[in-house]
Amino acid sequence: MNYSSRRSGFTLIEVVVALGILGLVLGGAISAVHQYADQRVYMSAKNLSNQVAWNVLMQQYQNAEMRSSNSRRTSNAQKGRQTQYGLDWNWNLTVEPAMGKDLYRYEAKVSAVNSDRVTSALSIYIVED
Fold first, then answer.
1. Each residue of 106-121: pLDDT tens digit?
2. Whole-prediction pTM value?
């Protein structure tokens, strides 16, 4: 009788190739999860800075609504700091005359406390009597 002395199983080369393919797939999956986490942090910060800018502009709108026709704005630029969900944000407000009588453009720019990069910039137009 002729029996084969070959054993069943995987060769070392097959195992190395399979591990290499598995490493590439896992590396891609980890990279995708890392990008998702970075985007989530970025979008959260962007949302918080938008809320700060919106708060500043709404405060200016309320002030404009309460002003009498005899009073005017005190300055064209203001700065401040606001805390939103435990994070500190610097904001700059600029007021410029726009086209039209008594029409002003209010722009709020927000950045993180330790950064000069503007994270959010919102503007509104307000008619003042």
1. 999 999 988 888 989 9
2. 0.69
Cβ(60)–Cβ(93) under 8 Å?
yes
State whether CATH 3.30.1300.30 applies to domain 12-127.
yes
- By residue count, the chain amounts to 129
Pick from 55, 58, 65, 124: nearest CA to 91: 55
Give phi and psi for 92, each to the nearest 5. -125, 130
- Max CA pair span of the chain: 115
Does 51 have pLDDT greater than 90?
A: yes
Where exactly are the structural domains of the chain? 12-127
Q: Give the rounded distance of the alpha carbon of 52 from its chain centre.
A: 12
